[in-house]
Amino acid sequence: MKSAGQIFLLFILFFIPTGVSYAQEPKGILRGTVRDSLTGETIPYANVFLEETRFGASASVRGFFLISEIPAGSYELKATAVGYEPKSRRVTVRSGATTEVTFLLNPRPKELEPTVVIAEKLKKLYEANPSIQPISREEIRMIPITAEADLFRVLATLPGVVRTSDVSSQFYVRGGNGDQNLILLDGITVYNPFHGLGLFSIFDGDAVKVSEFFSGGIGVEYGRRLSSVLNIVTRDGNANQLSGKYSMGFLTGRMLLEGPMPGGTWILSGRKTFFHRVLKKFLNQDVPLSFYDLIGKVTFKSTQESRFAAHMFLSNDDIIHPSLTEPNYAWRNRGFALSYGQLFGEKLYADFRLTYSRFFAELDSKLSRAIRPQTTKVEEVNFNGDVVYYVNPHEQLQAGMMWSIPRLESSLINSADLPIHSKASVTESALWLKYKITRWFPLVVDAGARFNFSFILTDARYVPEPRIALRYQFHPRVGLLVTYGRYHQQVMTISNEDDIIALFETWIAVPERHVAEEADHYVVGTEVSLFDHLDLSLQGYYKNYRNLLTYNRDKVDRLDPDYLPGSGKSYGAEVFLKGGISSFFGWASYSLGKTTRTINGFTFDPRNDRRHSLNLVAGLRIKGGWEVNARWEFGSGLPFTKIVGFYDRLLLGGIFDSTFAHETGTPYMILGEKNQGRLPAYHRLDLTLAKNLSISTYKFALELNIVNVYDRKNLFYFNRFTGDRVNMLPFFPTLSFRGEF
């Protein structure tokens, strides 16, 4: 694939002089930030444009915007953002000068207005990747909660995302494995983003400013994983006054504090479990789980052009059984980061991040004979930098670099009671370059390449990762989008796909005798604006996996391989409908997908191969402070391996006293071909009814949440030893209280 990488590099280099050659006589520049008028926080992805012209820009995740090469004159400058009232102001652009503008937008009342969708459309006209989905705090709150309001529950409603149970937030994207999702919190790699059994994520939604979810066609800014990217950016904190939020539910309590400080802002958010009996009812079994998580951030702003921030997050989870025959589990996450952003000159903005991430998990088997002790640890130091050069209003050049060293350790006791300890480190280094051109609108070109220098000495074929995204706007309401990308992954988890809930997953580096896992993404789609307040997205995708590795659980002697090579593919079609009018807002998603894996010559459907998925989400704001949110989901049956028979296995005990002659044997199962059966279809309705109250500057809300309103008996699994049927969550009402000050 050397030729493909060279072609893409030449393609990029061809356009760089093209953009620079458009320089003309000096004109004016508009730049600035868009902020929340109540908190002073920057607003990500706001749209800023000069009315009745084609000059405009989308603000970055930091709320920064820049519009260059504007002819001198007086204009009406307008800013819009989802969840905020639009605002306009008169500005004067002077030749050869830079005009600074700061917008303070007022938050929109709870009743959502049609302009929410219109604001999103202005940005989409110039975006070439159909598989990017921003997720706001409002959307997190719209999903009726099961145990806790959670970002990952929103992901589960998006097209292409599959979950395999009610009680786990583990997700699979377009046929990929769970360890092929890159999770970033303020640039920090999170190796275990779940609490305990996977009930929900470790991220408090109130501390999140915005999240970007890439389900395919991932840009050159990201690498190291094959399937998807979830980029979570936390809030800076209230710059105007001390404020806070708190909530108490049947399972956890949460508290968030934020406020100004000399030279900047701070924010601190924490959450902890309190009520073990509710968890027992929720899971239908006694699991002594306790956890807490903590997110903090301090931001300094020395000038309008620079910012410095320190980030941290912690999470602890424990399952401690009183019985000596039941194992204990422990999970620990630690993450720290320093980030610095600076505007150099008039058109160059740079971001630099130094991060540290640590994940540790331990399984203490105690006196259990069926389970053996294990540990896993990952430590990663990462430096990442990227720059954006605003060549002119229609072209952007972006470049960056990444250097990371994950160190992975694991230990276990094998079936022969021998301790096995492994230790490895991986060097991941890359440079990337991207050029975005909207000059030829209605054609938008976003092309680039990522160069993984860690493969130079091993296999140069894996160095280039070409990426390209194209958009052609046939009509103001209809656009066609095409993307392609190549991706590699050097770390993986050892887990058993047949586990109902994977309590323990061990991270390892791809063994030296094997090459990195590889995947190609092909996506084609169309975005249609059906009405001013209703958007439709249609996508088709194809993913080809190579060099997939699976731990060989059938290894008998030292000559058998530790890992089995494999490949895979997934393809499908997705429909996403999103809109709002007056006080109603919602979306509908449908996915049709097919996924296969071929391991050691045997092809099968993996556990996450769900043929049909349908999600309907709706929110209604009613006068008097009432809110009603609902979600209905449907999924066709997931694969499982059938029992085709039983046999009595002679253990030949008592060989010296001849009692084995009277042995009748122990029953053992005979399993059929892997995953040839399908579970029954799954569907469920969840509802939330909330009442909002305000007293002076204090806000309160009382919520009634009902999981599985019509008490659908969704099959979780059959206990193969007892034959008992275990269902997923039953009808389950809860109350929660939250407040703000």
Structural summary, described in words:
The protein has 741 residues and is mostly beta strands. 6% of the residues lie in helices and 55% in strands. The strands form nine sheets. It has a 22-stranded antiparallel beta barrel. It has a five-stranded mixed β-sheet with strand order 8-13-14-11-12. A hairpin with a 3-residue loop joins β36 and β37 (626-635). The chain is globular. The chain starts with a helix and ends with a strand. The model is unreliable at 1-5, 7-24 and 111-119 (pLDDT under 50).
Structural features:
741 residues; 46 strands; single chain; 5 helices; five-stranded mixed sheet; 22-stranded antiparallel β-barrel
Number of helices: 5
Amount of helix:
under 10%
Q: Indicate the radius of gyration in whole angstroms.
A: 27 Å
| Shape field | globular
Report the strand count.
46
- State the oligomer: single chain
> Major beta sheet, specifics?
22 strands, antiparallel, barrel
Strand content: over 45%
What topology does this entry show?
Layout: H1 2-20, E1 28-36, E2 47-50, E3 56-58, E4 64-70, E5 73-80, E6 87-93, E7 98-105, H2 115-124, E8 132-135, H3 137-142, H4 151-155, E9 161-162, E10 172-173, E11 181-185, E12 188-189, E13 208-214, E14 228-234, E15 243-248, E16 252-261, E17 264-273, H5 276-283, E18 289-303, E19 306-319, E20 328-344, E21 348-364, E22 374-392, E23 395-413, E24 419-425, E25 428-437, E26 443-452, E27 464-475, E28 478-489, E29 491-494, E30 506-509, E31 517-531, E32 534-551, E33 563-581, E34 584-599, E35 602-604, E36 612-622, E37 626-635, E38 639-640, E39 643-649, E40 666-671, E41 677-678, E42 682-695, E43 698-707, E44 715-718, E45 725-727, E46 732-740
Parallel strand pairs: 1-7, 11-14
Antiparallel strand pairs: 1-4, 2-3, 2-5, 5-6, 8-13, 9-10, 11-12, 13-14, 15-16, 15-46, 16-17, 17-18, 18-19, 19-20, 20-21, 21-22, 22-23, 23-24, 23-25, 25-26, 26-27, 27-28, 28-31, 29-30, 31-32, 32-33, 33-34, 34-35, 34-36, 36-37, 37-42, 38-41, 39-40, 42-43, 43-46, 44-45
